[in-house]
Every structure is written in C-alpha cells, then in structure tokens.
Task: structure prediction
Amino acid sequence: MTRLQPTPSATVGPYLAIGLTWEGGEFVVPPGTPGAVWLRGTVFDGNGDPVSDAMVETWQADPDGRFDHPDDPRGSARYPGFTGFGRAQTVPDGDYAICTLKPGRVPDGEGGLQAPHVDVSVFARGLLDRVVTRVYFADEAEANAEDVVLQGLPEDRRQTLIATPTDDGYRLDLYLQGDRETVFFAV
Amino acid sequence: MTGTTSGGRLDLPRYARTDAALRTPLSYSDYRSTGLRAPLRTPVDLPHRLTEVTRPLLGEDRVRPEDADLTRRLGGEAVGQRIIVHGRVLDGDGRPVPHTLVEVWQANAAGRYRHVVDNWPAPLDPHFDGLGRVMTDDQGRYEFLTIRPGAYPWRNHDNAWRPAHIHFSLFGRAFTQRLVTQMYFPDDPLFFQDPIFTSIPEAARPLAISRFDYERTVDHWALAYEWDIVLRGSDQTPFETEDDGDVA
Ligand SMILES: [Fe+2]
Result:
C-alpha cells in the first residue's frame, strides 16, 4: 500500500484571525441552551504573561458521551444544535471562553470508561505545531480516579488538566511553559 | 443512559504517529517566539480513543461558493498576479479525504496582511481581504483562485523576510489529523534565512513547497500551482496474529 509522508506543520503566525475567525465559533451549543456552561481560562507563556494572540479549539462528546461522527458507531442525536466543536481566540487579554454542554463519560473502546473530558488544541505565533491537551472536571472525582490517561500522570502534573467549577461553568488556565506547565499530549 | 455504559470493545480506526524526524519541532531557537511559548516537557502519548478518532462535521454551512475566489472582494478586483492554487487532500495511505474543510489566509500582492498588527509600509489593497474557504470534493480535491502573495519583513532577526506563503488549516476526518501549515512557492530565494521554513526537517521541506503547474494555467487569465496536502494515515503496525510470513 502507498505510504505518503505527512505534510509538515507550521505556525499559525500572528495573523491567524484573518483566516480562522468564525462568527459564534465559541458556541458549541447555541446561547441559552439549557444546561450550557462556560469553559474559560487564560493561556500563559513561560514568563507568566498572557498569550493574547492564540486560538483554542475544543472537541468533545455530548452529555451522553457520544459523537456525531461515522467512527462513533453509536451516533449522537439527542442534543440539537450541539456541534462538539468550539473555537475561541485569546484576543486581547489571553482569555478564552467556550460555551458548551459538559461531556459525558466516553467508552475507552476496551470495555472501560474514560472520565468526562474535552480535547483541546492550542495554536499561536511561536508554536510551530498545535499543542494538545485535555480538560477534565474537578467535580468528577470518581470518574477521574478511574481514568487511565489521567491516572497515568504524576499526581502534581494531573492537576494541570482539571478545571474547577465557577459561577457559570468551569475554569482551566493553560501554561505553555514553566513550573506549572500544562501536560501536553502527543496524538 | 446508554452513553454511560462502557459498550464493550469498539473497533476504532488507528492513526499512525508521525516519525519525529519528519515533524516540525516545537522548539527551534532561530525562531525567537518559540522561546517562551514552546512547551519544554516531553509530551505524553495520548491513546487514540473515540475523542481522538472523530472530528467536527463542519463545513458546508460555513462555506459559500465565492469563498474560493479571493480575487474579487469588497466590490472590485485585487491587484497582483492571479494564480490558481489547487491540489488534493490525502491521508498517509494515499486515500483522498473528501468533504473536508480547507481554510486559507494570506498577505496581499505587496506582502501586507489586512490585520491591525501588520503596519509595515506596504499598501493595503481595498479589494483583497486574504481569506478563503472551500470543502474538498468527493475526490479530495480543492481549488482556490487568488493572487500571489508578496514576501514580508518581520522582526525575528536583522533584515528578516518571510518567503511568500499561503497559510492552510485542515481538519481531515479525525482530531488526530488536524493540521495547520503554510504552502510555499518553488525556488524562493528567501528560504535560507527563514526559520519558520528551516524549522521543518530537511527531508520534509519539499512537502511544503507547491509545484508550478503549467498544465493548469489559463491563457490570458491565471498562472497555476499544485499542492497536495497529506494528513496522517492509519497505523499499519501489523498485529502479531497477522504475521504469516508474507512480507511482500
Ligand atoms: Fe504569514
């Protein structure tokens, strides 16, 4: 079978807003959807300064832990208007905000369950490739304790992935570098 | 609550991880902005589960036919060398990736972006906004009509210039295949001093450069460049049980 070498990645650069801005991109569900929460945070660089020209993309299951995609044999239908996908820029202060439904537990495909999580990609000037992380939820302690990916990390690093409840949803800051560097994944 | 049952074994596609020697590294000191932004710890391998092998079904509702033509915007025609940029989106197995969103953005013919932080002394073009979107067709083909972007200066090092390029963003069919990259033009004399280009491992650099495509030029209308984009393929590491000695 033909094997082709993948095209190498490159940075989005400082002008990503021209090509990647979507009207309403931060709404994974339409505003006002019952049960909607805001997932918020700030992206920081190695100096602890906010990164104000990044883009954060999110991808997640619905509240039943399902995906509207041909490779999820179970499908997803119960949440009209739910896209699973969010895209937010951190202009002008390094903050991102995504309006979504909290995901359910997702099968790991081997008979177990993963804890509720959101896959996150961060793109920015100075990042030659996207960096990938996951958001977990502090109020899912039981599920988190069973999650193979989370439990595979040293305890002090695990905390970098766990969003804490706020007035209108959850918060997780992302640290590209430094003592509090977020756990990033190779996918 | 069917979604919260484990559902037993799922037969999920597996995606190949790209050899590090062919991937653009995150840390590359010649590109100064990586200094405080590139993570320094080794990334942790994430198993490919449902979240990683699915992706958003985006597209048709966000893409209009006129989004494939960057040369006519804001009530007039852009200045510059008109070019057709086309190619296929494939996966590493050589299979076309149909019906997937391709987003592009670029500087105008003078090398200026329509963006608040780009204010070097080159003219803006009132009829060029630099944004294009298309969906690949059922053969994985895409095509834009645009103008050839100019080179532009930046502050990375003394007298630093970016070679002419078009930014591309692709989703493929899985989260693992998400790709943002830049397409270059053949034989650009600025490659040698551009750390965004030279950060690409030498063996992978040809894949970032388009091919001049005389066959697709249109007489008295446009030049043409062809650029195929290859996303991650499937993981074909054989299962032990498949090892029957046939290695052809
Ligand atoms: Fe650029």
Notes: The longest helix of chain A spans residues 141-146. The pocket of fe (ii) ion is lined by residues A 13, 15; B 162, 165, 167 (CB under 6 Å).
